[in-house]
Amino acid sequence: MPDYVIRGGIVGRERLRLLSRVMRPATLDLLGRAGVGPGMRGVDVGCGGGDVTIDLARLVGPAGHVVGIDLDGVKIDIARREAAEAGIANVEFRACHLDELDGGGTFDFAFGRFVLSHLKDPRGALAKARAALRPGGLIVVADTHFCGHFSEPDNAAFRRYVELYTETVGRRGGDANIGSRLPGLLADAGFEDVRMNVIQPAGLDGDVTLLSPLTMENIADAVVAEEVATREETDAVIAALYEFAQTPGTLLSTARVIETWGRVSAR
């Protein structure tokens, strides 16, 4: 996964657990609002460790089925094991690209969270997702408008983290602020009845405050590789972010997240 800026493998999986805990209430609300329900067959694109995939499998129930795909084989192996341990039988995980997915034109829904911002060709990915859906099928995507982060009080390390992430993603061909473009991208891809919503978790303690320093820790190698900052600076920013997050009274947000959904024409 040469273009992906966030560390993968087992270490990256632990960050995704925290992210999933923070995002789960909003994601479940989004899926219900968009219309994912019992008996549906769907695909979770860029499923990571499978947290949302398993929630999707529970939503569609025994009569439905969900396929989770990701390029990170380590995370896919973990997802398979954890789904089996949880007794989730109506889900499968594949280490593959969207191009390799069979069942084109038969899925009832496609879901992707924090995927399009890392792609050089998000329009192409949406076209492939559309081709995988049946007439009337549903697309649900959520992604970042990264510049929307905020903290109280203001903090130089926090602001630098936002700059480093945004620049590094851009150098690898992505767009950390793609969230505001999602409604237009879905419309351009031929989806109809496009809707959107904005969410932004924030807090004074707990998982949400640790997400920024942990993400900075997991992008440090990419930041240095792209020569956006030195190792010395990234280490300093990580240390300062953890200190800031653990200071009583600090308010930290995640990135602003744009949720968007639409449908393939039923005709």
Description:
The chain is of the alpha/beta class. The chain has a domain at 9-146 and 173-201 and 256-263: Vaccinia Virus protein VP39 (Rossmann fold, 3-Layer(aba) Sandwich), CATH 3.40.50. The protein contains eight helices and ten strands. The chain has helices at residues 9-34, 51-60, 73-85, 122-131, 156-171, 182-188, 207-225, 231-245; strands spanning 41-45, 65-70, 91-95, 107-113, 133-145, 151-152, 192-199, 202-203, 251-253, 256-263. Strands 3-2-1-4-5-10-7 form a seven-stranded mixed sheet. Strands 6-9-8 form a three-stranded antiparallel sheet. Helix 1 crosses helix 3 (73-85) and helix 5 (156-171) packs across helix 8. The longest helix is centred in the N-terminal third of the chain and has 26 residues, at 9-34. It is globular. The N and C termini lie far apart (37 Å). The relative contact order is 0.16. The model has no long low-confidence stretch (mean pLDDT 94).
The parts where pLDDT drops under 50 for at least 5 residues are none
Q: Percent of residues in helical segments? A: 40-55%
The order of strands across the largest sheet is: 3-2-1-4-5-10-7
Main sheet makeup: 7 strands, mixed
Beta-strand content bin: 15-25%
Span between N and C termini?
37 Å
Class inferred from helices and paired strands: alpha/beta
H/E element order:
HEHEHEEHEEHHEEHHEE
How does CATH name the architecture of the domain at 9-146 and 173-201 and 256-263? 3-Layer(aba) Sandwich
- CATH class value of the domain at 9-146 and 173-201 and 256-263: Alpha Beta
Query: What shape does the CA trace take?
Result: globular
Q: Within the CATH hierarchy, at the fold level, what is the topology of the domain at 9-146 and 173-201 and 256-263?
A: Rossmann fold
Number of helices: 8
What Rg, in angstroms, do the CA atoms define? 18 Å
Specify the CATH homologous superfamily of the domain at 9-146 and 173-201 and 256-263.
Answer: Vaccinia Virus protein VP39
